[in-house]
Every structure is written in C-alpha cells, then in structure tokens.
Design a protein that fits this description.
Elements: H1 22-82, H2 89-111, E1 114-117, E2 129-136, E3 145-150, E4 152-155, E5 158-161, E6 163-169
Parallel strand pairs: 2-6
Antiparallel strand pairs: 1-4, 3-6, 4-5
Length: about 180
C-alpha cells in the first residue's frame, strides 16, 4: 500500500496548489534587501555630505573670527617697514616676530584648505572682491584691481570674506568751457 504522504514527486511534475511559491517569496525578499542596501548607501552619502558641510562651516567661522588678527599683523608689518626706526635692532626683532606669526597663520590657513584672495593687478570680480573706491588712471585698463586693502578668503567655492580693493577707472574728460 502506497502512502500519499511519502510520495516522491518527479521534478517535471507540476507543484501542488498547497506548496507555497518559493521563487516569488525569494524575489520579494531580494527586492527588499536591495532597497535596504540602497537606502543605507543613500543615508551614508547624506551623512558624509552633512559632515563635510559641518566641517566647512566650522572652518569658516574660525577664519571669520581670526581674520581681523591677521589683518592687524599685516598692518603692523607695513607700519614697521615704513617707520623711521626701521633698521633699529629692536624694531627688526619685532618685525621678525610679526613675520613669523603671519607665516604661521598662512600655513594654518593652507592646512585648512583656505585660499587667500589677493587680486592685485587682476580684473575686478564682484563675486570675490569688494570695491572700496575707484581710481582714475592711464596706466592700466579700467576694471583692474590696483590696490589690495584687505585680502579675502575662500574655502573651496565658499567665499568667507571678499577682498577689499581699489579698482582702476578711465580718466574723465576735462570739462569743456
């Protein structure tokens, strides 16, 4: 007597209606798995972007806070060079200390990925420069940076502060009487 529970099905036979469809279940699980992987990858990318944005913001805030000190060091160096006491050993010692401090500041900026915007003798760019004044001149084309008053700083494409500059202008025509 043959027991129906112990029947061996031949692989070419059709499955019973009572047997669940394993291939459909496998396809559904595979789809869920692929979606979960894609969501995890997207979350990782968003987290990386947020981390980089946070770093850039922190660096930007630090440079904004320290830039005035850099400006004062540059002004002190200019004043020491222009002083009637230039060449005095004491003034020279102070000047060397100021130059080393300025150099250390610039090295730190480079390490953070900061680019200094010092556009002397380049075309004026309103996206990077702030014109403090215009100066009429015959010696250069109109719209060229003549004087750099204060350097600007940028981190990648992010402008931290614009450079303050004087821009050349065409000489005006003498008044006709």
């Amino acid at each position: 007597m043959e027991d129906s529970k112990h029947k061996i099905k031949h692989p070419t036979q059709e499955p019973d209606a009572t047997t669940p469809d394993k291939s459909a279940e496998l396809a559904a699980l595979t789809d869920k798995w692929k979606r979960a992987l894609a969501e995890a990858e997207n979350a990782r990318k968003r987290a990386d972007a947020a981390r980089l944005e946070g770093r850039e913001l922190g660096v930007t805030l630090a440079v904004e806070a320290l830039a005035p000190a850099y400006d004062h060091i540059c002004l002190a160096i200019e004043a020491a060079h222009a002083s009637h006491k230039a060449g005095n050993p004491v003034v020279d010692a102070y000047l060397e200390g100021l130059n080393r401090t300025k150099s250390a500041f610039e090295t730190g900026l480079k390490a953070l990925g900061i680019r200094e915007i010092a556009p002397k003798d380049t075309p004026f760019d309103p996206a990077l420069h702030e014109a403090m004044q215009m100066q009429e001149t015959n010696t250069s084309e109109p719209g060229v940076v003549l004087i750099l008053h204060r350097p600007g700083f940028a981190l990648g494409r992010r402008l931290i502060r614009p450079a303050h500059v004087t821009v050349s202008a065409s000489p005006s025509e003498p008044a006709k009487e």
